[in-house]
Fold each of these.
Amino acid sequence: MKLTAEQKGVVVIAPTPFLDDGSIDVPSIDRLADFYVQAGTTGITVLGQLGEAPKLAFDEAASVVARYISKAQGLPVVVGVSAPGFAAMAALSKQVMDLGAAGVMIAPPNTLRTDDQIVNYYRQASRAIGEDIPFIIQDYPLTFSVQMTPGVIRRIVSENPACVMLKHEDWPGLEKISTLRGFERDGSMRHISIMCGNNGLFLDFEMSRGADGANTGYCFPDMLCDVVRLYGEGKRDAAHDLFDAHLPLIRYEQQPGVGLAVRKYVLMRRGLLSSAALRQPAAPLTAQTREEVDYLLARLAKHDRRAAVAP
Amino acid sequence: MKLTAEQKGVVVIAPTPFLDDGSIDVPSIDRLADFYVQAGTTGITVLGQLGEAPKLAFDEAASVVARYISKAQGLPVVVGVSAPGFAAMAALSKQVMDLGAAGVMIAPPNTLRTDDQIVNYYRQASRAIGEDIPFIIQDYPLTFSVQMTPGVIRRIVSENPACVMLKHEDWPGLEKISTLRGFERDGSMRHISIMCGNNGLFLDFEMSRGADGANTGYCFPDMLCDVVRLYGEGKRDAAHDLFDAHLPLIRYEQQPGVGLAVRKYVLMRRGLLSSAALRQPAAPLTAQTREEVDYLLARLAKHDRRAAVAP
Amino acid sequence: MKLTAEQKGVVVIAPTPFLDDGSIDVPSIDRLADFYVQAGTTGITVLGQLGEAPKLAFDEAASVVARYISKAQGLPVVVGVSAPGFAAMAALSKQVMDLGAAGVMIAPPNTLRTDDQIVNYYRQASRAIGEDIPFIIQDYPLTFSVQMTPGVIRRIVSENPACVMLKHEDWPGLEKISTLRGFERDGSMRHISIMCGNNGLFLDFEMSRGADGANTGYCFPDMLCDVVRLYGEGKRDAAHDLFDAHLPLIRYEQQPGVGLAVRKYVLMRRGLLSSAALRQPAAPLTAQTREEVDYLLARLAKHDRRAAVAP
Amino acid sequence: MKLTAEQKGVVVIAPTPFLDDGSIDVPSIDRLADFYVQAGTTGITVLGQLGEAPKLAFDEAASVVARYISKAQGLPVVVGVSAPGFAAMAALSKQVMDLGAAGVMIAPPNTLRTDDQIVNYYRQASRAIGEDIPFIIQDYPLTFSVQMTPGVIRRIVSENPACVMLKHEDWPGLEKISTLRGFERDGSMRHISIMCGNNGLFLDFEMSRGADGANTGYCFPDMLCDVVRLYGEGKRDAAHDLFDAHLPLIRYEQQPGVGLAVRKYVLMRRGLLSSAALRQPAAPLTAQTREEVDYLLARLAKHDRRAAVAP
């Protein structure tokens, strides 16, 4: 089953679980996959920006992908295949599609500047990996320093039939969604799925702007599913009420560098990860940070019982 | 009265008010100054990053500074003097100090890369403007692309007696505050004031890390004053309760580009500005954005009556 | 007399001469202006990137411009007016045009990324300064980090009647000239003057690609005039012979940072500047650098007697 | 035989030869290796920045390394192992050392900014690949946007016994060599080999500043060997005479993007490569560029018969 432009819901960014000794923690992969299915997510992204992919040896990466796919109970699994060259990107893409992946995500190298450079890059990438492999544009200027206007995204979509989704994490980004949906309405761009990243920091408004859902790894993906569902049911106030209760923690987890450590720490406290360990190099989780996260969880638990985790 | 390293509280970043025709709106300056005094702020920053300084002619900038000073009822007024050359920076600094400013704020040019380049820049700047003029380091990597480690800040503080304050807006930044306060405790750096920017997005935790207060322009500076005061009184939960109610709007206003338009719009709705106009070039405030801000204000008003503004 | 799209020859980038005490050296301005006229240059650019403009106070800058204009014997004088805001740019442009300047040069701020951002910037700048003021695009990605494709330049030229010249210093840049001249031939862009910078490092081939001349400050502008003239006379080999003799020094002077110190040093040794002084902050000219430049001059003098300067 | 800090001479950057159909051209590898030995080079760098490494599949890269090593007749072979993560870097390093490589070259990721980030990166990299593997720092800010001060290089050398060489291609860079050699003289840094890149554009002066030789891929490495030898014999004028004859072509080949196409074209014209083909994506070699290179070769042949290649 391949990813399509009709994708909706929450495609969760999955972490790569490690044990304290740095080895891959397979039982936690299984536990997370089960949890994602039960929580109502509609897909799983593996080896994304926050999947610590660069810290994995080639064989390890493949084994993580294979394990998630085998446990996903039919949910589409998307794999990040960004690489410094097209040869490696093509080899990795072929491998993961053979393993049963539903599509791949491609981030732009941070040397791209002009509109044409960006458009050319995605055209070459799609040809290199094969135009039968669905791909996702990752639009994350804060991290990649590459700025794609709506017009550039339209050009990429128009030139590449294999482009099915935008991982939207520009900032600010609300008008960008409105503009892209306007392109669809005026007939100048075919429909693609728009799924929002940035730890969900603006998901409450992105949904009303026309997003199809979230594609991020916030430590409560079950809450993201609820927000998307409530929006679908027209319950705007209820969606905001739930979202606002989580916002202090969403914001805290969205901090670059330390954010992934926070995310893994909460997933451990929720019983989903055996360990909060990251592979080196990694920003440490200080005692004060842990105390602050515990405090945020305690406050959140007053509004959302899922946060009432045992100490 | 000059700015000192003992500065605390909320030094509010003041906008430059314009009428719809683009001319400077002096009555709104007066109204804002009165409001800042009554709200309990402890200082005012004029011509900062969000004061639209580059859109002002030389004489206009001076007149805005002079007006704010004349209406500040003794509050210290800090002026942003960042400029492409030291000659212009020195001329502007002399002028505003002669007008009665309490100090100046200096942002690093975005071409600085190495530690030595940053340290040299501040040494040269302080000598150029005169070492009797107190200055503030603006540490805002997201906008300026200049990354200052705590060690670099310590070197700047050690070399420059005129450095009295850090406008802290690194992101993530909590550990940075802890590290700098650690330098003070271990005796390797003299005390400076640390005031937090970034629209206050992390003010709730920055206070417990050792910050002295806020130096930002969020559209409810009176709330920032309350949070700083509550922290001073040891009321952590109360501070968070108030802060969390504002967080959805804080986050919304913190968006680059559109944020200033949102801020001015709310200040107008609060009756403080006659017009929400920005000078060109400026990001427009779309109807959908206005609706979203109105919605956020209505939700906020349930927790904080100051947000219950007439439509 | 205003600058036009028919500009040809060598528009020399003039330094700002200082005495050893840092004051402006007016007699050297006069001497340089005389020299530029006699050398056959067709224009003078003042307050360019290497004119140390940011180190001049506002009044000093105006006095330097006025002096060069008064001594230029009718040569068009172009003034660099790049500024962080349109208000300052407009004020400076008006002032220098009133003094008799022929046009202005505008560099893009190094925050511009997308094609639209660049095009919008020049449109806003031209409107801000007045569309009756001829302007030059400075296309220097190495220093400004802004990459303009030929298509972007075409858009700027098409939208702005006041755009008359491109200061071409992209690197590599030969194909860019060919592409732009191709746009003119196929009727998709009106003609503009293309004058080459980069210290003339590729002038030998830029001329055959279709450039109209040079717009740079190499310490032998008389040689640049010869190369342009020889090309105009169809003497390609002779142009290269002369150029190649200078290339070791051209390359040496083109080094960022230290290059301006080298240039001033040679202009002093040629008797055109009273002092090689730069205003602070500036890269120092070490003894070893001086020895290397002397060595290069001695070697050059074997081919070009103009380099046989007294020790 | 492992690379040491005593390395001198010319370690040539070898291209990866392709046939017109894009497959690896093994006979050309053999021919190049023979040529490098006969030309007097003292080492070979494979899979460097201009070895098109990112376009090679994993197995292809290994086969190119193995072939060069098998044909190098005892010359040390250095391999570029820069990678987005330490896991891949360690795997590649182990593989090439097992194949017989003499050491590895590591470029910094272009996200590094502060001094500490750069120092930490090299410490982590050396530990990841194993401290028994000699490594080379590649200091190339123009391409990598990472600026290393001499003090930072000293810290890397001091912390990492495995650091044996600096590939020096900062620009400007002459003072940097002088400063590093000064560190050695004053005893604050142990000796390392400094080999110069940047296509040799400043090799004539870098030698007298204290460089040990060149580490670059200019299409006449035999000329680079001569220049290094002449300097060693104290024949400064003769070294410059030969160098200056090549400078027009050196400069032309040093252009980013198109430079590698020029290099391969000349190597083909010299009979060393069967084809000038690059793998896609690559900058094309236009007819006009080819004509210009032919013209430069014809001019060069008047001074250096090695450039008198058959048409």
Amino acid sequence: MIPVAIIGASGYTGLELVKILTQHPEFELVYVATSEGETTIQQLHPSLEGVVTMQVEKADASEVAKVAQIAFLALPHKTSMGFASQLLELGVKVVDLSADYRLKLDRYEAHYCKHTDTKHLCEAAYGLPEFYRNKIKESRIIANPGCYPTASLLGLLPFIPYIKKDTPIFIDAKSGVSGAGKKLSSTTHYVTINENIFAYNPIKHRHAPEIAEKIDELFVTQVEVNFVPHLIPVTRGMLCSIYMQLENELDPIEVLESLYKDEPFVRVRNNPVDIKSVAGTNFCDIYATMNGNSLFISSAIDNLLRGASSQAVVNANIICGFDETLGIPQLAYVP
Amino acid sequence: MIPVAIIGASGYTGLELVKILTQHPEFELVYVATSEGETTIQQLHPSLEGVVTMQVEKADASEVAKVAQIAFLALPHKTSMGFASQLLELGVKVVDLSADYRLKLDRYEAHYCKHTDTKHLCEAAYGLPEFYRNKIKESRIIANPGCYPTASLLGLLPFIPYIKKDTPIFIDAKSGVSGAGKKLSSTTHYVTINENIFAYNPIKHRHAPEIAEKIDELFVTQVEVNFVPHLIPVTRGMLCSIYMQLENELDPIEVLESLYKDEPFVRVRNNPVDIKSVAGTNFCDIYATMNGNSLFISSAIDNLLRGASSQAVVNANIICGFDETLGIPQLAYVP
Amino acid sequence: MIPVAIIGASGYTGLELVKILTQHPEFELVYVATSEGETTIQQLHPSLEGVVTMQVEKADASEVAKVAQIAFLALPHKTSMGFASQLLELGVKVVDLSADYRLKLDRYEAHYCKHTDTKHLCEAAYGLPEFYRNKIKESRIIANPGCYPTASLLGLLPFIPYIKKDTPIFIDAKSGVSGAGKKLSSTTHYVTINENIFAYNPIKHRHAPEIAEKIDELFVTQVEVNFVPHLIPVTRGMLCSIYMQLENELDPIEVLESLYKDEPFVRVRNNPVDIKSVAGTNFCDIYATMNGNSLFISSAIDNLLRGASSQAVVNANIICGFDETLGIPQLAYVP
Amino acid sequence: MIPVAIIGASGYTGLELVKILTQHPEFELVYVATSEGETTIQQLHPSLEGVVTMQVEKADASEVAKVAQIAFLALPHKTSMGFASQLLELGVKVVDLSADYRLKLDRYEAHYCKHTDTKHLCEAAYGLPEFYRNKIKESRIIANPGCYPTASLLGLLPFIPYIKKDTPIFIDAKSGVSGAGKKLSSTTHYVTINENIFAYNPIKHRHAPEIAEKIDELFVTQVEVNFVPHLIPVTRGMLCSIYMQLENELDPIEVLESLYKDEPFVRVRNNPVDIKSVAGTNFCDIYATMNGNSLFISSAIDNLLRGASSQAVVNANIICGFDETLGIPQLAYVP
């Protein structure tokens, strides 16, 4: 059993990490912390009462280093790199769920803030196993992708080799409200979003550069990515509808199947995908179809699992040389 | 008071027609029918108990002609043209909410079925007032647009003059469940669509040719329209997210405002639109923004009102020379 | 036209008052205020853009008195009595939507706070028209009932004459989230209440004494009232399920019909009631059935209309001698 | 590993049985059937694609007997007893999720239909482990309780010894829509129940006699049970609000804790319970409080798990002498 820690256990992704790690056959959750500390996990998350009982500490890197080999950071960006750099110096491997290690320095500083751990930034592996598996294996710091880039990249990357020159990609993403986190805002007030839907930060959302950077990194090709997120009246789940033009008509299901046939957590579907078939799991379900040279791709994930916590544990499995599927949720909540 | 009739009162759009027409200052609802008949409107729609009490007849064109000058048809396509042709022969003006008079003959027969009233088809005005006002004024048969084309066309038509040559339009439409009608299906079962979202008939939906035809008709330009409808867990309301490329960067709000500044039922918004601000009204709210040459347009309507029943009554107002806003709902249900 | 004012226009009930009063044939909305002021009504409520455009003032009783004959107060309790007492002194009639004038002094101070306008408290009429119509007519200060007491009292009062001696009443109330107001709280976060239901303040809720007091006042009988409110994942609407024991078996529909047959805003139903048939209206729909001596009553209202704003305007209609139904919403939003 | 079978795998409870049994450490799911057969489990339930792949047979008792020692029947009542009697004759133990073995003969025939397996009816143990554990251990036919009686009985049974003589119990139950099953009906149409709530079969629901019978059986006391189920806009989960009068005031939490302190699947809570804390688990969360002699109890379960499938597997664990918690879901889906 490898001892692991969670720093940032009060939010939704923290809760999901607790649920996965306490059931995992090879990880032992030995340390849980928040920035406040001094509580118990069942007080933070009453649904855990009688199932998981653990003290929640005030986060302290040196305490983590005494007991754990891997730390999962579910912290806000900026705070996260502070802990990550300390933990790495102390020899603890890090799976970071924040944005802090996802982008190259320039892009990060353009879209977030000044980076305070440039030393480790260049070492970080982007934790999308299907495309960065080998780099993840050798890294001690994993930048777990955001939910939007995860669903978008898994859907569109297979088609980058076929994209029509100089045409943009349009990503129309729809996210459940849990993606906005636990903090109170008028947007997440029930009355605002129930029976409603709206775009936010259209085209200017900071996930667009993350997606464009990874396309460039993997295919050495610069593509214009237009990303429009929408909030939908759903608790969890995310659907990305992706539109692009290809040089030639092709069978998109075949393209997907040839790339993903051996992937344990991508399911190529013959019909439009839905979020209920993946909510509760680490699966990304993908469907695609063409109209002439225009391609429509639909990809669905659980934003808190494949888009955060379960993908983080898959990355930890890879680091440790375990089977990627070990202890990873596969049974959807449906109905 | 002009006497009017509704044929097809059992569905959601029939109910909305009853509500608007019984409150209208210049129309008097004198005849209501369904294909079965022999009931009362308050039995069909228990919420009307104590407010509207009317006999519901078995639909009969000659009875309509005896009492009404205008008939609203809220019937399935194919059935609708049967009644419409009889009514027109008997001198009754028709506002048809079905698809039967929306398309040119070839397109109609390619996407629906054989047309049995080609005589009146060529007379029909497409009932989108902002673009077909003059033709509507002189017509006795109005093809009321579907909800998807209404929201799509109002959003994209202002930008057709600026579109980049040979580039497609992508419409990512999201509809509330009432758009699927009252009939039972596994798709409209609460457990299927609650906490869910999915595309259906992607790219192959028959509203794409309707949109393309109107673009061609108004701007004599052929544009590839890729239309992907999604079902969302919302009762009423529709949001269309439209993606296209323009020849040059421009101020899209200015384009919208210059075209719609005198339109009573289009509101150009400075922020992304939402469906709750229009649900319960005939408004179409529109927002647009650009990223380089890529344009994102967001347009929202109430699918049962602007997408069906209230737009139908606006068309009747135009036919009769009334102010277009007469008796038309403008106050959203929100919260 | 009688000039009227709204003080407290930023919340949900304030919005509903604006919608009703701007459509009312005999009231003219001349003054709208909030405690902050210096905005417009369409900025506070963007759905009103293009429909209602009015300046929103910083609330000032003497300004109200210059222009309006009746003021609707949609303010928090305590704040409300401050304004009400000033307005009354200045000759403005008041319909108060807060709790401040609903209870007798002792009860009020036991459940809320010290009362600072005892002078007018004893004059106040309880604004439940079906039972207090005559007193309302002669009053200049109306205490508009809360949503919970409105739905509860209309359901149970008809059966008080038949109640089994010394048996309690149990009220299981279910309220949509708009009843909790616009302020942010973890309870109204979408993720908390979506796919959920829970009781709050069970048995100890302060609406129980309000209900008990009115029973005592009307029937000179003291009944134990156990009131348990639940929050449900619905934006608007309230259902009260009431359980009590009667001395003898009787036909409860007959009891309801004989009492309410001439009431314009109570509909006695032959089947269990639902909230969608009343949402958007001032109706209270009621159904009742017995099992031996045990009675089940189900009553449904729109919590923001019959439970607040439209009932307030009915009370203003009564004060002014208008028909009670004048300008009052009767058409449900359904579907 | 004990080989087990599921007959009736197409519905929601069938799906939950598949999910639990394929993860169970001591049961091996060897046979799955529906009345139609000739499909695969992943076709019936697309979310299982890539996770569970099994042929689905046309149900045949003799085939079951060849391969399985225990059969779970998730069939409609009446159909179920047909299969159960055959299976029992063939030596297969049965956990029946239908109503067929829950009631004594007279009651069953009064509320359902003629019973065709009276031979085994008298042997059946009522599968509520907390109160029938010993009988379950020795039985070969278990009548798995319905969701309504499970939540109701666990909440109210601890207080039966203290009930005030000759006073009724009122149960106000709220069920998510999955409780109505997969079949299409106007009640389960999204537009009907979204943003709505209503009672159905009030006071006359056939779960009342089931509850009354078990009270009588366990405490030899006849109590009037008034049961009113409500449908709420939630997919899964059930909340029962129970009202009763006690002889004396007492500490209800103490009563609950003393009875349930060693129960693995009942959690006594100090605050009103909610369904999200139990959805996804076999837990029943219970809270209670008093007002004088009036008692309010609130109990919450997942209607498909504790109210059906996971309780069925707990019963199978008991039959086999396993730890009751073996393979039973304990981690709620929340958020």
